[in-house]
Amino acid sequence: MKKTNKVAKAFMNKIRAGEKTNGKPLGTKLDINEETWHNRLLIATPSTGLIRMEWAMARFGQIIPTNWSYVEVIQWINNYVPMQYLLPDAENLIAKTCVEGNFEWMLSIEEDNILPADAFQRINEYMKKGDVPIVSGLYFTKSNPPEPVIYRGRGTGPYEDFKMGEKIWVDGIPFGFTLIHGSIIRALWDEAEEYMVNGQMTRRVFDTPQKNFGNAADGATAALRGTSDLAFCTKIIEDKIFEKAGWPEFQKKKNPFLVDTNIFLRHIDQQGRQYPIGGVPDKYVAKAKPSKKAIGKWGK
Length: 300
Fold this sequence. Notes:
Distance between the termini: 87 Å
Order of helices and strands: HEEEHEHEEHEEEHEEEEHHHEEEH
Largest sheet: 7 strands, mixed
CATH architecture of the largest domain: Alpha-Beta Complex
Number of strands: 16
Strand content: 15-25%
Number of helices: 9
CATH topology of the largest domain: Spore Coat Polysaccharide Biosynthesis Protein SpsA, Chain A
Helix content: 25-40%
Structural class: alpha+beta
CATH class of the largest domain: Alpha Beta
Strand order of the largest sheet: 4-3-5-9-7-14-8
C-alpha cells in the first residue's frame, strides 16, 4: 500500500512539472493550489434540526454562480437545554468559525426563510463588487397583517416607506438572509469577551439584550428585551465597528445597512404557512405605469 502511494505521488509530481511519462509528453500541466482556496464565503445556519421540506428545496435548489467556492456550517441549537444556551450562542460559534477560517464573507441563512432561486446569484454580485459590507434580503413577520422586518430607529416600528424592487438603507436588519463582510465579524471578535459554549471557547460577538431594572425606593421594576440581530446592528453603529473594520464611509451613514428587496424571502412556520399570506401587501407594490404607446392607440 505504501509503495502504491509513493508511485502515485511520484506520478502527480511529474504531472505538476509537466514531465514526460513512458517517453511521451503528458500534454497537460496540472497546476495545483496547495494553499487554502475555499475561504471566500461561509454559509451559516443556526438550526434546531427541524426544517420544512419547502425550505430544504429552496436552499439546496439554488442556482449556483459559476466558479463559486463556499463552505457551509450548520450550528445546532438544542431544543431542550440548560438556561443561557440560546440562539446567540450558536451564532457565536459560527463567528468563531468565520474568524478562525479567515473567511472573506459570511452569509447567514435562517431555517425559516425560503430563498428565491436566484438568491446566491444576486448576493454574488455584491461579493464581486465588494463595496457594501452588509447586505440583507427582505422578508415579513409571521403575522397577519404582516410587517417588513427592516428598521429605522428603535422603538418606532418597521420601516414601511418603500416599494418592492428598491434598494433601501436602514439602521436595523434581521439575519434571515444577510451577507456580512468578514472584517466586520473580526473587528467585533477582537473586542468581545470570551465565554464557554458547550465545552467550546468562543466570544460574545452576538448577544440578546436581557436586562432587569429595579428601584428600591418605590419598588418599581422595568425590563429590557431585544433580539440578537438588532443588538448586533446597534453595536456596530455605536462602537464604531465600520471604522475599525476599514469601512469609515459607512460609519458616517445614519442608515448604513443595505436591504435589497429584489431578494424577497418567504417566512415559513412549522405548519407550512408562508408569510406574507396572500402575497406582498399592495402598499409595497409599485404601480405599473401605462404604456404611452398603448394610451395613444387605445386611449382617448
